[in-house]
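INFO batch 0412 | record 1 of 1 | parsing
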Amino acid sequence: MLSDEIIHQILRTFRLSPTADQQRAVETFANFLLDRDSRSVMILRGSAGTGKTALASAMVRTMRQMGQRVVLLAPTGRAAMVFSLHAGMPASTIHRRIYREQAFAGPDGMFSLNANLTSDTLFIVDEASMIANYGSHGSAFGSGRLLDDLVRFVYGGHACRLMLIGDRAQLPPVGEQESPALSDDVLEGMGLAPCSCDLDEVLRQGNESGILANATTVRQLIERDTASMLPRISVKGFADVAIVSGDELIDTLASSYSEVGEDETMVITRSNKRANIYNQGIRRTVLDREDELSTGDIVTIVRNKYLDGEQQKTMPMLANGDRARIVRVRNTRQLYGFNFADITLSMLDYGGVEIDTTAVLDTLRSDAPSLTRQQDEELFQRVAEDYADVPRKADRMKMLRADDYYNALQIKFGYAVTCHKAQGGQWAHVYIDQGYMTQEMLTPDYLHWLYTAFTRATERLYLVNWPKEQLSEE
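INFO prediction complete | emitting tokens
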């Protein structure tokens, strides 16, 4: 297949007149496909408003039309759902595709790297800025280095290749200074041969959007390494950006829930503690829910849970970051010093698949991101006492593996989240509460945070209690 033919097919599927950046990206992609180096890897970097998603979708559709095997992946369930909608084919999370459960070693289980049994397959990963590669001590997944494991998995298959798509202006993974999966140098150091390109030109319609115009302003500060002044946000003249005072917040949130729904409305904050305050306040004052957990509540899973039996065929694992709606709550009880309930979840990012499980409710009101290490140990010891009469340790561990209480699902309310939790997702209406800002708090990390938070909104962006000194006069 000639390079010109591939380029022609992609641009015909794209149906728009490409920018110079987009034209170069399509040419780079064609060269990547025809590269005889078996360790070739493609990196498509693009910021908000440059048409990265539309172009990547055209590439995916063209490859399928040409009979090329394609697998779509993303770091989170929400990101996989968004990628799937744009590309017109199913996408999976990276973890679900490349890992398999090996042995029981705590509530997260233990997952080893799967064998890649596919051949001649192009693996395309969206939101690659989220892929970490620092050594996570005690990680339940593979080597603890997700990027290393992804590369090993993909290139372990016969004639398989990897394409990584992402935005370098977004937050890098926790513990990293930059996004390793979008770095030519990092991938070269792993023995790969990168073919990379960048989309920087914001499309005309992007300049008409206050969301994208302000995101571009913040991105330019990041690129110039300018962290000496608070970015000034433009609101005047834009219909999709608004300032919301604390007095207006309840009514405005209620209007968003009515207009686009609770699942398409998100509050993004700087800390778990602040997100917890929002979640409790929203349930009490906007949704008028008094029970500890109610039918209709939206929750976020905050600890991986491996499923057994028939449910495993539908969904092998409920992953940290997955979002769900509560369908039923029953049999609330207190055991081992903790509160539990049997619940039915409708998985929002997976077509509403329903899962029955037992959840621990203590995480719902906690400021911690999940059960603390001390709580984990306490629950383990209390439950393990029930199996103390089992002589063999292996048998005790097997029983603990199946215990509904020790392996209870950990959840938090999902109306407000930190930016790291929101990353990879998009919502129609996004509310941003950055909290109190001082000049000393102005760092490159803050600019990445702000850019990432802004670009989670697709229709409307609300800035909560935004300081006047951060607003543009224009």
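INFO post-check: The radius of gyration is 23 Å.
INFO record closed
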